[in-house]
Model the fold of this input.
Amino acid sequence: METTGEHQLRGAGLRVTRPRLAVLDVLAERPHADADSIVTAARTQHPSLSPQAVYGVLKALVSAGLARRIEPAGAPALFELRVGDNHHHLVCRSCGAITDVDCTVGAAPCLSPSDPAGFVVDEAEVVFWGLCRDCRPKAAAGPARTDEHHTRGGAGA
Done:
């Protein structure tokens, strides 16, 4: 019987390979994973898997529309399997946690720029920045009295 990963790969016109299946499994378990984390996790299923092979698989999955690459400012590229729905991301400025957020106002408000400048827009990428639920209380308590020059966004930064 065909697995979900095999079905996805075949449906996208890609060959089914062990490295591709391993990367799909990792992304299913760990949305918003960076390439290094994907390499490490995929090697539990396929120990001889090279970083180059994982990068190639990620490129193929993104090109085929099976995965999405997101690049929050100041962070490595991240990959996820949630594609084609114009969702966006919330990123915590403190711990880096990332959460998906649906575009909820109107049919697709993020696809209507004030001046499209001749473009036909088919996707928008919005990143909302703030503090997650776990980091808000820490921020309200204030920074620990260590060295102000090492606090993110502090006077010495």
